[in-house]
């Protein structure tokens, strides 16, 4: 059913459950390493493999990270809470239950304010946070031999337990109502703002493409004028901002079509399909799952001292919303320029580039133009490009020094992205330095004048603009490495014309 048509009869209600893998050096309940991309099943031990007699020990840094995020989300922090066992069949969790938190989360009752651009101007929403709780991640199962990568049709499955036990924070919103046709944009803006918040705290790299941040998207439709929510679907493990937006839009259209045809929306988990932008059915949740939670007898309660919590509150860094306000004033940005940075998810990258020495205008130019184009071509996000803000700042500096033209600088960026090294190494290896000394340029200038006699005569006759053709010939002869300004000066001097 068409999106606009659905919204004439129904009001969407959203719920977002976001999982963030913490960037701790060890797992949640053992000392195993957490490095991404290690050989399968090399970062495991008796605890995360659930061997008999092994006992978990809480990662203190993970607790601190959870409290810091809760404070940044305006949550209350529990003075006492416990871990619980969530019993459920996990083929990729060796002990066949997950250590999580249930009715006693560490952080609760918070909010996060977001802004969504509309044709009528910016509109603010306050997203209520129900809870931030700690738990452990599962392992990773791969289904082999099938066409879809899922268990149906697969010949066999393999399991990597490296991820089992990695610290997770789950951030759960309360139902989000009154978003109307902005529902997909609200969902995207919330996850984007949450990601920036987590990144600013330094507790996770939040690389959605690597799974260190992923979102479960709950959507239901409520007939306009009704007081009860509709039946929700839960699209699991959505791993990009664009996909969060697309998943919400698709579920609104799908559920609208089911209801308009007189059908009934089934409460179920669903899987997002990147190639189509749609979702497919996972498993039914018509009956509420009984996870049989009970306090984990192997773990002591967590009771953060009030003094410690206040120390953590006082040490929080500048948060994204405050940083945006400061940057807008310091860089003298218009609302539109700031919006472009936010929409491109580039504000942090640009700020780091400025901190590395680049002027704000140069930093913005590189990230929003050349690098944004390359990210689009690669089908990835800006932050996933293989170039750092410090490297971008160095490219900008080389251009400002006159060592590179913008054209050559783009080649340097290309080399850095290709893994050829830092900007200076790429310049040296590719021989990209600007030719600006007179002895090197003189021969190219003389040859350009000789080969373009008509243009040279026009310049001598006072048509200085004709020098552009001669400069172009010099640039071609030097493979774009000539200092165009100096080449023009030499051309005019050779032809006896004042510039």
From TrEMBL:
Task: Enumerate the Gene3D superfamilies for this protein.
Answer: 1.10.10.410
Report if keyword Transferase is assigned.
yes
Give the classification, highest ranks. Bacteria, Bacillati, Actinomycetota, Actinomycetes, Streptosporangiales
Species, as recorded = Actinorugispora endophytica
Q: Which InterPro entries match?
A: Asn/Gln-tRNA_amidoTrfase_suB/E (IPR017959), Asn/Gln-tRNA_Trfase_suB/E_cat (IPR006075), Asn/Gln_amidotransferase (IPR018027), Asn/Gln_tRNA_amidoTrase-B-like (IPR003789), GatB (IPR004413), GatB_Yqey_C_2 (IPR023168), Gln-tRNA_amidoTrfase_suB_CS (IPR017958), Gln_synth/guanido_kin_cat_dom (IPR014746)
What this chain does, per the entry, is described as: Allows the formation of correctly charged Asn-tRNA(Asn) or Gln-tRNA(Gln) through the transamidation of misacylated Asp-tRNA(Asn) or Glu-tRNA(Gln) in organisms which lack either or both of asparaginyl-tRNA or glutaminyl-tRNA synthetases. The reaction takes place in the presence of glutamine and ATP through an activated phospho-Asp-tRNA(Asn) or phospho-Glu-tRNA(Gln).
Reaction(s) catalysed by this chain, per the record, are:
L-aspartyl-tRNA(Asn) + L-glutamine + ATP + H2O = L-asparaginyl-tRNA(Asn) + L-glutamate + ADP + phosphate + 2 H(+); L-glutamyl-tRNA(Gln) + L-glutamine + ATP + H2O = L-glutaminyl-tRNA(Gln) + L-glutamate + ADP + phosphate + H(+)
SUPFAM superfamilies xref list: GatB/YqeY motif, Glutamine synthetase/guanido kinase
- Tell me if Calcium is a UniProt keyword of this record: no
Its recorded name reads Aspartyl/glutamyl-tRNA(Asn/Gln) amidotransferase subunit B
Task: Please name the gene that encodes this protein.
Answer: gatB
């Amino acid at each position: 059913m068409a999106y606009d048509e659905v919204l004439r009869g129904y009001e969407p209600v959203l719920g977002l459950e976001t999982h963030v893998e913490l960037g701790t050096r060890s797992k949640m309940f053992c000392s195993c390493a957490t490095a991404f991309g290690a050989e399968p099943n090399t970062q495991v031990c008796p605890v995360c493999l659930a061997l008999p007699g092994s006992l978990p020990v809480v990662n203190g840094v993970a607790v601190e990270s959870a409290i810091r995020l809760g404070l940044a989300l305006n949550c209350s922090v529990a003075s006492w809470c416990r871990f619980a066992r969530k019993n459920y069949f996990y083929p990729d969790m060796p002990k066949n239950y997950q250590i999580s938190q249930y009715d006693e989360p560490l952080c609760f009752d918070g909010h996060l304010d977001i802004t969504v651009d509309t044709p009528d101007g910016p509109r603010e929403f306050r997203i209520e946070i129900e809870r931030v709780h700690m738990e452990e991640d599962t392992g990773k199962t791969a289904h082999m031999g099938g066409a879809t990568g899922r268990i149906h049709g697969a010949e066999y499955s393999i399991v990597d337990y490296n991820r089992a036990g990695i610290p997770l924070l789950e951030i759960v919103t309360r139902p989000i109502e009154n978003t109307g046709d902005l529902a997909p944009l609200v969902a995207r803006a919330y996850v984007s703002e949450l990601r920036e918040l987590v990144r600013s705290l330094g507790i996770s790299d939040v690389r959605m493409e690597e799974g260190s941040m992923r979102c479960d998207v709950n959507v239901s439709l409520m007939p306009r004028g009704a007081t009860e929510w509709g039946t929700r679907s839960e699209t699991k493990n959505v791993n990009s901002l664009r996909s969060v937006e697309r998943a919400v839009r698709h579920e609104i259209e799908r559920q609208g079509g089911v209801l308009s045809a007189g059908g009934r929306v089934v409460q179920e988990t669903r899987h997002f399909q990147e190639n189509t932008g749609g979702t497919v059915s996972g498993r039914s949740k018509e009956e509420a799952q009984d996870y049989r939670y009970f306090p984990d007898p192997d773990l002591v309660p967590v009771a953060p001292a009030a003094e410690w919590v206040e120390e953590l509150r006082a040490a929080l860094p500048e948060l994204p919303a405050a940083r945006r306000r400061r940057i807008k004033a310091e860089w003298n940005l218009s609302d539109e320029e700031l919006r472009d940075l936010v929409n491109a998810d580039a504000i942090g990258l640009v700020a780091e580039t400025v901190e590395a020495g680049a002027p704000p205008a140069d930093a913005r130019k590189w990230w929003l133009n050349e690098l944004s184009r390359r990210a689009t071509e690669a089908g990835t996000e800006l932050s996933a490009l293989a170039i750092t803000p410090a490297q971008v700042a160095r490219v900008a500096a080389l251009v400002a020094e006159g060592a590179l033209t913008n054209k050559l600088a783009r080649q340097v960026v290309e080399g850095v992205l290709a893994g050829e090294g830092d900007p200076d190494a790429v310049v040296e290896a590719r021989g990209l330095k600007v030719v600006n000394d007179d002895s090197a340029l003189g021969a190219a200038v003389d040859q350009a004048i000789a080969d373009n006699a008509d243009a040279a005569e026009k310049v001598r006759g006072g048509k200085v603009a004709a020098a552009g053709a001669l400069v172009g010939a010099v640039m071609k002869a030097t493979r774009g490495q000539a200092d165009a300004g100096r080449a023009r000066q030499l051309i005019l001097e050779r032809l006896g014309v004042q510039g």
